[in-house]
User: Fold these one by one.
Assistant:
Number 1:
Amino acid sequence: MQMIKIRSSEITPEHVYRARRKFMKGIGALAFGSVASAVLTACGGLGQDDLGRFAAMQPETPTEGDAQQPSAGQTADELGDALTSFEAITTYNNFYEFSMNKEAVARLARDFTLSPWTVTVGGLVNNPKTYDIDDLRKRFPQQERIYRLRCVEGWSMVIPWLGFPLGALLREVDPQSGAKYVRFETVMRPQEMPGQRDPYFPWPYVEGLRLDEAMHDLTILSTGLYGKQLLPQNGAPVRLVVPWKYGFKSIKSIVKIDLVAEQPTSLWMASAPHEYGFYANVNPDVPHPRWSQATERRIGELGRRPTLKFNGYEEEVAALYAGMDLRANY
Amino acid sequence: MAWLRANWFLALAHAGAWLPLGVLLWDVARGALSVNPIQDITFRTGKFALLMLMLSLACTPVNTLTGFRPVLPMRKWFGLYAFLYAALHFLVFSVLDFGLDWGLIQREIVEKRYILAGLAALLILIPLAITSTKGWQRRLGKTWKRLHRFVYLAGVLVILHYIWLVKADVREPALWGGALAILLVLRIPRVRMAVSAWRRRASAAKAGPALGSSTGEAK
């Protein structure tokens, strides 16, 4: 197979984005706001109110160290790609529990009950625990993480998540030595989630990670985005985000996390075993049995861009898969 | 007015065939597409092409089943509309989506079997659209009929195109596939003759009692 070449003009040279970061660091709040406006206007779809709201969320002196602050302090990811608009992120959702129509999800999920909500963490752990959602938010300091999200369908977004490393929670429950995988489960609530009444899929939604993937610093449990609490269509009140894997791995509205010895079978693996594997790492060189993964469409842009290996997080995560055949382990 | 009364079905069918394109252009103009507009346009033109092709293939069976003759001239027109929407679908894919980057397009075609199936169907429709005129029909004689039977293959390829591109839930393309199967089965000469014989009997039975009472025959 022919490797896809990223045109050199499309790569932001390191010195340029380093300079860009320095520029961002040094710039005052006022000027920062106007940069944000320009970027958001370029994305389209945001009115003046939204721009005002966005500018209001800028920290006084935005710096890289400010990632702890629960507000959208940056306008781009580390590659210089602009954030996707709040409107797009909250109106274009793959959440089959509500609907297979991405634009219908937000409306159908509007009255979804978010409180009370608990997350039960158990299985092969020494310290099983049930967390109340407010507890979870308070106990683990929320950080902002700007990640690219690449859907297996070939579109992508850049999202400023709020959340905390899953590893912090797992360390607290103390996995036993036999625990090799983590299994996640979405709430089962067919009265509120019309899609779950469709017997075609083996509900509830289940996903899984290898323990080392789960402990990786990039893997977070998210409770918000754009400095606000998550909306139901984005997987409120708490969801997984694994930025180097296809979006369906990032399971939403989690109620149960179990440490287990055997590799869990995800809903997609059960529904179409030849098409969806356990790993689902973003990889332009491993086509999905039905469609190519070489390119993607960034929401807000026309045309296509090349898909990056591990969604651009190769440096951070490639070591997890050293010596593994990524074609066999799709 | 008299023309419309005589040709109401043709007028309705043509208007119906242009309507999806009108609605699509209207939605584009007022920005009512989703945040993934290219995909929207691709999906919609593809769905309309499928619908038009199925309608074209439905004309003959509908005539066989109901004896409604005005559908027959629409067979050609629905076929041409299918080609129109399929051509738009392909243009959106190659120009809007892939910006005529032939390297990328070539890679997609090789890697995605559903694109191969769709492309093959489009390539079949091209000569059929060109030779759809009366002049070509006359010139080609018997060959014309053989050539235009390839539309059945195009139908099968389009269903494969659809089944292969959906994520996991194949119910909708399977329904379209079922409809296509029925339309093709109704063309098998034996089935067709059996159906028209049944229809003649049925209409005779409807007319029967009135005739029967006057002639005194029980049949």
Number 2:
Amino acid sequence: MGIIKNDDAQFMLLAGFIIGIGLVITTIMLNNIIFESNMAGEAGGDPIKYDIVNLMRISGDEMKSAYRNVTAPGQDANLKFINFTSQMQNFSGNLSKIYALHGEGVNVGWNISNWNNNNYANFTDNGTANGAANWTVMENVKNSTITVNISWIDTTSPFRINISSATKYWYINFTYTGTPTTITNDQIKNNITSAYSIAFINGSSASGNYSIAGNTTYGRNFTRARDYILNATVTLSTSKMRTNITIPVSVPW
Amino acid sequence: MKSKTLLKNEDAVSITLGFILILFITVLIFSGIILSFYTLTKHSQETAMKESFDILGSGFAARVASMDTLVNITKSNGGTVNQLEYDFSIPASIANEGYGINVTKERILLESENGNAKAWIPFNSSSNITGQIYSNAQDYKLSYDNNNNSMKIEQ
């Protein structure tokens, strides 16, 4: 009877409240744990593409550099292929070691058959027959000398060099092969005032080599030249991806 | 004095009825808590699936976009993509549910087996890509076919 009649239950009430609040907290925590455990673990972007684009760019730059080095005045022309190969082998070997440090297998190959066989490239933007036929080579030119040597031409839509300023327009059509043509700075100045831009039109209708050297209205010297198109083949492989890409490289610039 | 008597008056107090009432209220409260916990769990599962689909789809879209970028950069330089392959894995289940991934040129649709959770990831690929894969196999390969200018998903 003493227990039944005892109404001093404050501690029981307190315990009840604590248990109630504890249940609510436990429910919320469990809910969060279940949500987190159901989340996907893997996500994110793909940084490897920057490595590949970088590899393509530096391989092309190295080929240009190697070509310029071995064809520079004073170099032995008989050793040009050997020296070129030597520089590229050195580059490829070092590059493989550098990329291996962060888990990527890399190899750079090169094809110089166009150079070896004197196969000249089209006057398109990237030197291939499918490249853009009408393109601007240089803008804001102040002085320049243009040398073009054409080895093949389709006279139905002749290759043309357009030189245009903001107000005037002058062009040279090319209809013959074999003889290098030089357009001097004075010839250009007699027809057009600077600043002007130089564009190739119908570049896929002819092949050969060109060189444009001069300076810009900003006072900087420039050289745009193409002797041949060489091919660089870059391969890159990681545990998650593999790629093998061949890109044409315009040499010397 | 009177109120004290009223407070101390226990003539209408029945221990049995009090016990039954308290038991009933306790059962009700506990049932409510358990039911709400179950509903919260179900809701969490669906939310988790949607979130996971978004993450998974975005990761897949990032890979397709990478391939597309590389192909376009190579082509703009007049080059050729001889080989371009990406390996990727997908979880066998998300929140204990199987799911399927449907890929077209414009979007990725991820859908759970029971159809309760869906996610659309829009993207735009310049190469053709079509494929339907399921979570019953986890390892897939995304590759570029230079001849057809298309991307394939193979197991």
